[in-house]
Amino acid sequence: MDVSVVDLWLPILLAAVAVFIYSFIANVVSPHHHGDWKELPNEDAMLEAVRGADMPAGQYMFPYCHMKDFKDPEVKARYEKGPHGILIRWPGAANMPKNLVLTFIYYLVVNLCVAYATKLAFNGRPAEPAFMDAFRFSGAVAIFAYCLGCIPGTIWFGYSWRSTWMYVIDGFISGAITGVFFAWLWPAAEAVT
Predict the structure, then answer these.
(1) Distance CA 8, CA 28 (A)
(2) Between 29 and 190, whose confidence is greater?
(3) 186 closest CA partner among 142, 131, 124
């Protein structure tokens, strides 16, 4: 019997809730992300410099240069002299309720994609997938979604490799959680159709 993505609403929703709870525990309770951010030396002077720059919210790279200008000796010398970095200026304080809702929506979208891929993999088979088959496939798709997105930022923008590996580990755990819910609730989804 074929399963539609709509039939998989329960594992989509429950896996999103479970990953949301795990994410809170991993980022707030567990100590493995406590080293992700460091305090600036002489933070007060840096804050005053940023306030004095009157810069709008956005992402800034320093020293700034376009690739087309990199042949200019002055630009090249400034770039080579450094320091190098990225500064993200928020429009205000973090809006925790909004960010939590958007994070939950992200988990729902990932699980919707997992449901779609898993449905494509198993529909048309004469028998429903065994628990481990559904777990391995849906878990792998979720692991790809949760793990791989953070790596280009580390390569290109200098995010800490330590933090990146901690997020990759979290991605494996979140993917496994998702896989368990899809494998556990797949027969229930078939029974609904």
Answers:
(1) 30
(2) 29
(3) 131
Show the CA angle centred on residue 81, arms to residues 39 and 54, nearest 5°.
Answer: 55
Q: How confident is the model at residue 187 (pLDDT cuts 50, 70, 90)?
A: low
Please, are residues 158 and 118 in contact by the beta-carbon 8 Å criterion? Answer: no
- Which of left, alpha, beta for 124 (phi over 0: left; psi -120 to 50: alpha)? left
Hey, what are 190's tokens? 């078939």
Instruction: Look up residue 173 and give its amino acid.
Output: I
Q: How confident is the model at residue 189 (pLDDT cuts 50, 70, 90)?
A: very low
Q: How many CA atoms within 13 Å lie on the side-chain side of 75?
A: 9
Amino acid at 54: D
CA distance readout (Å), 121 to 74, 130, 161, 182, 192: 56, 13, 34, 13, 19
> Distance between CA 30 and CA 19 in Å, rounded?
15
Eight-class DSSP state of 27: I
SS3 content of the chain, % helix, strand, coil (to 5): 70, 5, 25
